[in-house]
Amino acid sequence: MQLQQRINAFVKLGAFLGQFSNVNIQKHENIECNDLFFDGFKHQLKLAEEHNGWFTPENMRFALQGWSESLTKANLNTWLQSYNLENIQPKKVAIIMAGNIPLVGFHDFLTVLITGHEVLVKQSSNDKHLLPYLAKYLEHVEPNFKGKIGFTEEKLEDFDAVIATGSNNTARYFEYYFRGKPAIIRNNRNSVAVLSGNETHEELINLSEDIFRYYGLGCRNVSKLFVPKGYSFDTFFEAMYHWHPIIEKAKYANNYDYNKAVYLMSEFDILENGFFMIKEDESYASPIATLFYEFYDDKNELKEKLKTDKELIQCIVSNGFIENEIAFGATQKPKLWDYADSVNSVEFLLAI
Q1: Is 0.85 topped by the overall pTM?
Q2: Domain 3-188 belongs to what architecture?
């Protein structure tokens, strides 16, 4: 199978996913294999929501829209144009996926297949409905994918390389278990935002998307703020308020109530607005419904701190503060060439 065949198949998949990215799902004309797969995928979305309370229709639509917009011929060609992906010697690459947000492991799945390798997927039990169905769609629009995509719930065996994502504890296990195999091992990371105090209301509105999208469960969600000494949070809270309906979600509300009770019983100082809390804390990983913050005096000292802690950080959101920063509101809209943990998985797959 040639590279262009693989690209064409994923472009067709992107067009298929685009049908499900709006509140009113509509079946479009000229989508290949649509009669065979459209109703079935609607059912898979329903199953995913029933199985995982965090996978709301809104969040699944957001994820599907992101992939639909990414899987265009222009984007795929831009991403791959600097690599030689012809005449690849196919290897079997195992992927262990997280399940914190919908289709969180799709980029690894895409990268393995687009580079000409075979994939063996071990899914999280939290996100097990969508990807196998989309894999069947790929096999129908490009039959050469048949036999190159596998899923397992058993122990991984007979593979040449691995990409594994998990917690800090499971990452240590992965590093031991997969020693001797080419591997990308990912553990917990969090994203931060650096505020100057001069942000516009629009920038803070955009920042709210980085904080609340997917209930803050993604590694690209902002879980901590760095703010200048004496920063007033009034305008910040004002910009966050339009997310207040989030408290109507029972799972989120339960976490909010629990964490608030813990903080109050521990006599921690917190600021809150009825659906969201901020707490001064040096940690990067904040609980659901909570955002940590830390004051800074000197920008250069903060840059050094972020550089020192880079292994703990996925994204830095700011405006004109640091190299490779992410714009406000863009953390959950990565490009195909924005690699998790800044590890280029295409280069990794070309080297195995």
Answers
A1: yes
A2: 3-Layer(aba) Sandwich (3.40)
